[in-house]
Amino acid sequence: MRQYSADLTPPWKKPQPVPEVPADPGLVVEEPGTGFCGAVIGCEAGTVTLEDRFGKHRVFPMEPRGFLLEGRVVTLVRPSSGPVRPTRTASGSVAVPGARARVARAGRIYVEGRHDAELVEQVWGDDLRIEGVVVEYLEGVDDLPSIVADFAPGPDARLGVLVDHLVPGSKEWRIAEAVTSEHALVVGHPYVDIWEAVKPSSLGIEGWPRVPHGQDWKTGVCRALGWPAENTGAVWQAILARVGSYKDLEPELLGGVERLIDHVTEP
Description:
disordered N terminus, 11 strands, alpha/beta, 7 helices, 4-stranded antiparallel β-sheet
């Protein structure tokens, strides 16, 4: 007796095979269930992480027929080359896998203190090494005009300086105004201390407390928030550990550092 298949679905109604596409870094796909469209930035444990053009991340399971690529249904699979590497640095710049650090430029970026230098390294370190830019800290800017004069910035050795609390009328503002070299750029942020440039939301606090004038700012902040005021160094390391990328920093700091990097690396 002739055997017949129990599947009576017409061929034109059966699901057609779809291409399997490796989830390579930078591949832009859409998850049709949510309409979320973004570039692949991670792939592990059967999931893929997408980043949209606003920097928002979403994680989706890599299910069969689960994504649209240029309007066509596809199945994402793990790249054969291994784990997906980030396509962006912590500063938001395009990552350059395997890039070697450039020989240090004659130009420099100066920041006020060690905490400032550590925060800049945390977020912009990859970019600075590729560009060959060295960051040094000054332990204050009271002698900034003479420091700039000793550095003697020029067309091939530009100098950038990041200053805390650079607001009109402040002591820092008056010091910065005294720097006149066309090859030195002094920029800053409005915060009393670099700690304040970290978004409170990234630290799980509602906001940075106000500290009365004349009181040590770091100590006052730690006391107000219940942090160990006797060890501000340890508190800073805990703060720094919560900074994963530029998204954890206030725009006023981001813009200033980017201007300094552009100034020092300008051809």
